Amino acid sequence: MSLNETKNHDAIGDNICKAVSVVYQTYENLNRFFGELDNVGAKEGFVPLVPRFIRWKSDADPGGWAISSFIKPFQLAKDPILKNGSEMRNGPIYVVEALLSDESKKYVGRKPVPQITLGKFTFDFENRPWTTISVSDHWFFYYPTRMQDKFDIEQSGENWISKPKNEKVTHDYWGLKNVVWKSIDLVPVNSREMIKKSVFDELLSFPEVK
């Protein structure tokens, strides 16, 4: 092996180490973000539906080896508890997604930089078996703002609205009626004040959709 080849391999190895270090540091920053998200949310009347967040991982698919989408679902504490023995409430589910991957450029309503997607998910809870949300339910809140083959997705002012295309999709997504959502840049949301203003105030401002 020549000296130039050795230097080239060393440079590649160094770049890999630096890239992994950046990912770990980003995860540390997200850990602090989600901690503050819970603190600020509680003061604004929001109740988290999972202790940490929900995400997709896969051993078989390399795309699932590192997490790029972290979703935290909330409901409002003032909404009544469902009468099915669960702790979930009869009201919208408010979702905060931290999205790191530039894969977002494939989808409407997002930019190819780290984003926060804010969503207000409205369901028909009456005849659906809602009892809890698990970590594996990531897809449930991920795809309605992306899959245009299953959802009609249209812009409405600064927001976007997603609606199931047919009854089968509604059934598959446990009575989902619609989602009002928008995406904002993640990096500037770096303080309690910004979390309140850019996340929870925005969630509360989302309109009702018929």
Automatic annotation (TrEMBL):
In terms of superkingdom, the source organism counts as Bacteria
Write down what this protein is called: Uncharacterized protein
Please report the organism this UniProt entry assigns to the protein.
Answer: Heliomicrobium undosum
